[in-house]
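Module 6 notes. Inverse folding takes a fixed backbone as the condition and produces residue identities as the prediction. Think of it as a translation problem where the source language is geometry and the target language is the twenty amino acids. Below is one complete input and output pair. Work through it position by position during the lab.
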């Protein structure tokens, strides 16, 4: 599969067209960003870790009947995916209080949220990804509102699958975000990436943060956390 014209470059990935119009290549960059791109640093090896972790998690989801845009891992930092019409919307699933949830509601970090809680956010760095409800989504035309219940259902199913996997890997799945899009056949699918960039993952015993919060808040070496996640995953799959 040949990498042709660059279609888009984001904070952490580059999208390239291929000789097949319905397929694109995602290239993961060796860049870490936080606070809507305000904090940024080149970290050699990050792209390959995110590509490998995402490839593993997408494969697990596909094997459990969750439709995604993932086709296959192509190289160290590249994966082949279906070209999707992406929605500027993120679904966050929370199992424990952390991040913006703690700031908004004053809940102690690490408090278990049971049953899991879902929230929608508008994907827009300039506006700092504001939280939105169904009425906002309809007015702003972020996504067809009739698809929102299905997105939530998929998100909770993904949560159930990944919680079980990470539990075996001695890791707490604190929260994660999903992006959705329509594949060439018109079906709704999980797109973008599923990696420590888009999830909060803590060591089950020590509560050590293993995800991008290490970079956000200078809590330790980012690659060390990502490598531990990958190693633990490989031991249970």
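Target side of the pair, the amino acids:
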């Amino acid at each position: 599969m040949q990498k042709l014209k660059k279609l888009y470059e984001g904070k952490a990935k580059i999208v390239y067209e291929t000789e097949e119009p319905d397929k694109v290549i995602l290239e993961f960059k060796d860049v870490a960003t936080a606070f809507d791109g305000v904090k940024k640093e080149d970290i050699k090896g990050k792209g390959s870790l995110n590509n490998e972790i995402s490839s593993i998690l997408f494969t697990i989801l596909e094997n459990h009947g969750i439709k995604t845009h993932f086709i296959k891992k192509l190289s160290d930092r590249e994966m082949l995916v279906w070209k999707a019409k992406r929605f500027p919307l993120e679904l966050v699933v929370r199992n424990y209080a952390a991040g913006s949830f703690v700031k908004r509601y004053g809940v102690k970090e690490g408090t278990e949220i049971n049953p899991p809680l879902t929230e929608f956010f508008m994907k827009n760095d300039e506006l700092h990804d504001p939280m939105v409800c169904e009425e906002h989504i309809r007015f702003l035309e972020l996504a067809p509102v009739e698809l929102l219940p299905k997105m939530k259902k998929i998100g909770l199913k993904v949560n159930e699958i990944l919680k079980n996997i990470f539990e075996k890997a001695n890791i707490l799945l604190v929260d994660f975000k999903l992006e959705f899009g329509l594949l060439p056949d018109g079906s709704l699918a999980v797109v973008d990436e599923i990696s420590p960039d888009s999830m909060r993952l803590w060591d089950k015993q020590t509560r050590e943060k293993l995800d991008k919060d290490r970079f956000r808040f200078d809590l330790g070496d980012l690659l060390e956390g990502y490598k531990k996640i990958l190693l633990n995953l490989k031991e249970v799959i």
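Reference fact for the lab report: The first strand starts at residue 6 and ends at 9.
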